[in-house]
Write a structure and sequence with these properties.
- This protein is mainly β.
- The chain has a single domain, classed as Dihydrofolate Reductase, subunit A (3-Layer(aba) Sandwich).
- A three-stranded antiparallel beta sheet has the order 3-5-4, with no helix packed on it.
- β4 and β5 form a beta hairpin.
- The longest helix has 6 residues.
Length: 109
């Protein structure tokens, strides 16, 4: 699996299997071949999720039974307003309390 780490401050690297890049993430995602069958796994904050929002077709959300105070939004507040529906397609409840919720992108609202 090829791993790309997007970072503004770090220098670009090409060490396998992880590569640090400074290319805009949306350009990398949208530049993929239409026949590409591999997935992009996004692990990161709301800024990166907001940039890639048009490319996201599935969300896996972990819900933890713990409150710490205020939280960050799922998508950056600067993400353009493009509402979509999401269909719950799978869920896993762990005995210790967390839940993993899988949603597939529906249509535009």
């Amino acid at each position: 699996m090829r791993r790309l780490v997007y970072c503004i401050a770090a220098p670009s690297t090409t060490s396998s299997p992880t590569r640090t890049v400074r290319t805009p993430p949306a350009r990398t995602a949208s530049g993929r071949s239409p026949t590409t069958t591999s997935s992009i796994w996004l692990l990161g904050g709301s800024e990166l999720a907001g940039v890639l929002y048009p490319e996201i077709d599935q969300l896996i959300v972990k819900l933890s039974p713990l409150t710490l105070g205020s939280a960050l939004p799922l998508f950056s507040p600067t993400t353009p307003f493009r509402p979509h529906t999401w269909e719950l397609t799978e869920h896993t409840l762990l005995q210790s309390g967390p839940a993993f919720l899988t949603y597939d992108r529906g249509g535009a609202v």
